[in-house]
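Moderator note: this is an archived Q&A kept for reference. The question asked for a predicted structure of one protein chain; the sequence and the answer are reproduced below.
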Amino acid sequence: MAKRLISLRELDGIEGLIEHHLKLQERIEALDAEAAQFDVPAQDALELSYKANRLKNDLAATLEHLLARVGR
């Protein structure tokens, strides 16, 4: 029987990270667009950017771990 390279739980986790990151990016873009209308800095955009970067780093680490496991 072939060994599964990635579990459904891991795949769901990766999908969740990607979806959350996309939602954050959309929110950041919306905040920037709203702020640009009034020529003011976007409130909370910096904090959301930090969260998005952490998610991107988590996703990259997860994918690197899976790649290393598959390479064995």
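Archived answer notes: The longest helix spans residues 8-38.
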